[in-house]
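ping. complex inputs:
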Amino acid sequence: MFNFLGEIKDNIKNSKNFDLDSFNIINVSGRLLYVEGHLGLVSLSKELISFKVKKGVIMVEGSDMILAELSENTIKICGSINKVEQI
Amino acid sequence: MNFKNQTKFHIHGLNQEKLLSDLCKTVSLNEIERKEKNETTFECSYFEYKKVEKFLKNRNVKIVSIKHSGLAYNLKKILTSYGLILAVLLFSVFYFVQNQFILQYEINGVDRLSEVEVVDFVKENFSRQKNKISIDEIEFGLVDEFEEISFVSCMIKGQTLVINIKEKLWPDEMYGEFAPIISQKDGKITGINLISGTAKVKVGDLVQKGDVLIEPYTIDASGELKNVEAKGEIFAEVYNEGSCDHYQTYIQVDRTGRVVEQNDISLFGLLIYSFKEDMNFQMYEVEYEDLDLTNNLFLPFKMRKTIYYELEEKIISSEFEDVKEEYIAKAKENALENCDNYDTIIDEFYTLRHLSGVTIVNYCIITSEQIGGIE
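pong. complex structure:
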């Protein structure tokens, strides 16, 4: 089966030197954010959703945001997404 | 109608981020929305809502509401609701059908009549269906069938047919026991108190035990014999006798005190061990004693102990005159044993009969007592 994220990672030169296996985030048109590899929610509100990843915390800012899906590894956030920041 | 099987939880509590992070490890959550600081709504699969509910309860999280939607939930709801309706309908039909029948019979007021006979008669001759039963028919049927019934009324109470019976009042002669009064002892009649029946003896007659004293009938002026209950009191002088024999010489057998024992051990009836001492008794008597050697049923060893007692004969001689008073007292004692239910002792005496080597003492106590009739 074709793995889109896997293909992207394999096309990078010296990809083994980078740690590319901790998490994946896809932002679709600023309305949908798909996350793989989260380690648990930190905060949840309509304006700010933050969650832990392997080497830090990802903060998603926006408005009218809801968690459309939350499973053991994945998160799907819907709403108006303004900023995605890793700290 | 939403066909997706979802359950929406509305919860209230602190630190919901941690709670949701833990919960999502077992159940996938959707549409998580923070309503207020401590209130959140989320959805999960309808088939996993019990797991989520248990998890929340274990964490002491207040569940504000649970809403189900989807095809499976609606189907289940319809089935359970219609199942209940069906059960009620079935019960109603069953109740209606069985309510049409008499299930129990209650008979009141019977004394001489048998309840079973009355119930059997009603069951055999009349329908159990309430709408086919005619109370009048049952009442007339019962009066015609049983001549003991003076008045009868029936009623249907629920599923019970209640039958109230008033029996006819008949004189005792109609259903009494027509047995004669029999003499219980030998004696000489001294008094008769006849209440009903015909006396077959008169004062001064000598009667034996078993003789008829009062017959259970009367003969009226026209010579017709009519059965009545024999009633009355018959008094008589009764001769109560007791005797005792004295032998001038007799042989008395006593134990000497010498004993020999024999022990037999058996298992399931088979003799497996026996021990017996030497015995040279000329005369002896034997006693047995059975013992269980074990208390279990697997090997029920039993022991029979046989004890031989040596006997010896002694010739006893005595003159009657020396022991006369003692033998008379014994004879009197024997005579008194026959004196039960007596009113007064009229007289008492004894006679002696001397035969070859034997003297027989007869003691007679004459009492006045009732020998037949009402006690």
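Chain B has five domains: 6-74, 104-167, 178-231, 243-247+318-373, 252-315.
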